[in-house]
What we know:
The protein contains four helices and no strands. By secondary structure, it is an all-alpha fold. It has one domain. Helix 1 packs antiparallel against helix 2, helix 2 packs antiparallel against helix 3 and helix 3 packs antiparallel against helix 4. This is Outer envelope pore protein 16-4, chloroplastic isoform X1. It is a multi-pass membrane protein.
Amino acid sequence: MEEDFSVSTPCSSIAVDSVLRMSSAGVIWGACFGPFDARRLGLSGSARASHIAKTVGQCGFSCGIFAAIFSFTHCGMQRYRRKKDWVNTLAAGVLAGAAFGAGTRNWKQVAGITGLFCTLFQFAQDSKSV
């Protein structure tokens, strides 16, 4: 059975681990999506390679920033409240969604939906199969 490291591990270590994992996922997503997007835009040669590299970097950076905000907030809420429940996940998801969607027109909607999805994912992760 897995040991729960969230009690003894510093929040900064949890955040760094999350950033590394999610940045890697973002880089993989950018490497898959970049060529598709470049083809859709009709790019070729060095413009295509530049667009793919830029997409890989943007996706990796964005996923890493989201992971840092979410995991650090989640860990901080858990330590402050001394409870391990869905409220921590909802608050961290809303805060990360608000920060992530700050440049958009409807950042409140982005924050709410992100919090909802993070909470639903937490419920699914904590549920036990029959």
